[in-house]
Amino acid sequence: MTSPEQAGSVTTAAATESPERAAKRRSATRGAFFAEFVDMFDIYLPTVILTPALLYFQPPGKLDPGTAAIFTSLVFATTLVGRPIGAAVFGALADRVGRRRSTIISVTGFGVITLLIALIPGYATLGIASYWILILLRFLDGICLGGGYTGALPLAMEYSRKSGRGLLGGIILSAFPLAYVVITLLGLASFALFPLSGADSPYAVWGWRVPFVLGALLAFVLAIYYVRSVSESEIWEAAAAAKAEGTSQGGAGRPLLAVLRSSTFLQVFAMMTGFWLTQNLVTLFLPTTVLRNLVGLSNNQLTLALLVAYVCLVGSYIGAGVIGQRIGRRRFFMIGGAAIATVGVALMAVLVNGKGLPFGLIVLVVAVFSVVVTAPWGVVLPYITERFRTDVRASGFGLGFSVSVVIPSFYAFFLEGLGGLMPYAAAVLVLLAFGGVLGAVGAAAGPETKDVDFEDTVPTS
After folding, report:
1. Conformation bin of residue 233: beta by default, left when phi > 0, alpha when psi is -120 to 50
2. Between 329 and 294, where is the model more confident?
3. What DSSP designation does 442 have?
4. Whether 8 contacts 151, CB under 8 Å
5. What is the reported pLDDT for 19?
């Protein structure tokens, strides 16, 4: 473990970067990218792979639409509830026992749980209990998924050169759209190989299980990689040693309380709530309501449009990270929020009134809209980690990144409420503009962070 006397030399080591440290940085970067990919892969498994097979867990006969919607929503809602819990639990663990150890525990956990999901018998065997077992396992999976990136991503940031955090953050977060592309292609292959025509069809009985087994194997490979190849953060080790010697400036004995009581968390929470709201309108509302119901795309057209958009996002996340490093993360968020509230709103207006437009034009608008609205996500990783001290960084990142998703998850209720005051299409535009403005204002309330040294205390606004 790094001694307290070495704490001040970490910055110098990062600047000169010995071959040994460079190797540690590369290993941590690969691990964080893979962790983000596996996390998003597992998140999208129910959306893309399991949804067509949910009838396998349900009573025979056609359910009424309301009951069917409740059954389906529970699979996704329980995971969303579990993620913030996992971020809090594993964030505190990462601050106390280390980023590497916390990552290994959480990744192994969601690997085991994903494998158990793949083995669940259906309604014909267990009755309705099979569905509740699925719900319980998805909740536990969400807890472990919430912890999977809470240790891995701050660890990679703490090994990064200060000047390279923007690029690195963009590369790591680009694993999110890449995971969507891969899981969608895997879904298309599964649908083609295993026919789906009822609860007793090959896909419903066992075809959906293959991608879940693959997801579990990816998690186990990631855990083994961290055990064998990733070193603990030197910066965290120095902070832990300083705490043991009683020279720490923080209150890391209770990292969660320290974070929740800070004005820094409130500022990050406000900003991220805005950007989560706009993100949900891209990832959830756009495909399910706008493109399918309002524009009237077929399943194949919808899949193609989203694949093109998400391929574009892989590059745009990286580009956003680089730009944020150059002009400043705070400024990038403020410009990005304003762009969402203007350009993004204009593009959404085209889409909600897009029935009858040429398909090629729709694909182009969807791709540009997705890039504009999700641009801030290429910058959030370095920004949030830079906003918190080392002794509470994992907790701060986990809470700031995940707890802020809760309120935006109820976007459908907000739209319903606004729909009573104005046309539904206008309500969508108002909610999108509000999210962009909230993200920009939240960023403006905080400081610039790109020149923050991780050994320093938390920056103040």
Report:
1. beta
2. 329
3. H
4. no
5. 86
Of the candidates 4, 232, 251, the one whose C-alpha atom is nearest the C-alpha of residue 98 is 232
Q: In the predicted model, is pLDDT for residue 441 greater than 90?
A: yes
Q: What is the DSSP string of 163-221?
A: GGHHHHHHHHHTHHHHHHHHHHHHHHHHHHHS--SSTTSHIIIIITHHHHHHHHHHHHH
445 three-class SS: coil
Least trusted range by pLDDT, from 98-107, 126-135, 152-161, 451-460: 451-460
Q: Token digits for 117?
A: 């999901």
Whether 206 contacts 119, CB under 8 Å: no
Which pLDDT band holds residue 248 (cuts at 50, 70, 90)?
low
- Mean pLDDT value across the chain: 87
pLDDT in tens, 349-374: 999 998 889 999 999 999 999 999 99
Q: Could you tell me which of 236, 284, 293 has the C-alpha nearest to residue 454? A: 236
- Contact call for residues 365 and 351 (beta carbons, < 8 A): yes
Helices assigned H by DSSP within 328-419:
329-339, 345-352, 359-374, 380-386, 393-402, 411-419
- pTM, rounded to two decimals: 0.86
Cα distance between residue 316 and residue 178, in whole Å: 12
**Nearest Cα to Cα of residue 143 among 91, 96, 178, 179:** 91
**Residue 459 in this model has a pLDDT that exceeds 50:** no
CA distances in angstroms from 387 to 4, 94, 134, 239, 269, listed in the order given:
22, 17, 37, 16, 12
Q: How many CA atoms lie within 13 A of 126 on its CB side?
A: 14
- Residue 179's nearest CA partner among 64, 317, 66, 22 is 317
327/54: higher pLDDT: 327
- Rounded-to-integer distance, Cα 395 and Cα 39, Å: 18
Residue 425's H or E segment, with its range, is helix 424-444
> Hey, what are 179's tokens?
């995971």
In tens, the pLDDT along 14-29 reads 456 788 888 999 999 9
Separation of alpha carbons 93 and 6, rounded Å: 24
CA 195 from centre of chain? 31
pLDDT for residue 3: 40
Q: Which long-range contacts (CB under 8 A, 24 or more apart) does 410-415 make?
A: 411/277, 411/280, 411/281, 411/284, 411/285, 412/285, 415/285
Tokens 């918190």 found at: 388
Maximum Cα interatomic distance, the chain, rounded to a whole number of Å: 69
- The CA–CA distances, whole Å, from 383 to 107, 113, 269, 390, 452 equal 24, 31, 12, 14, 10
H runs (alpha helix) in 6-98? 10-16, 19-44, 65-97
The amino acid present at 345, given as its one-letter code, is V
Q: Per residue in 147-175, pLDDT tens?
A: 888 999 999 999 999 999 999 999 999 99
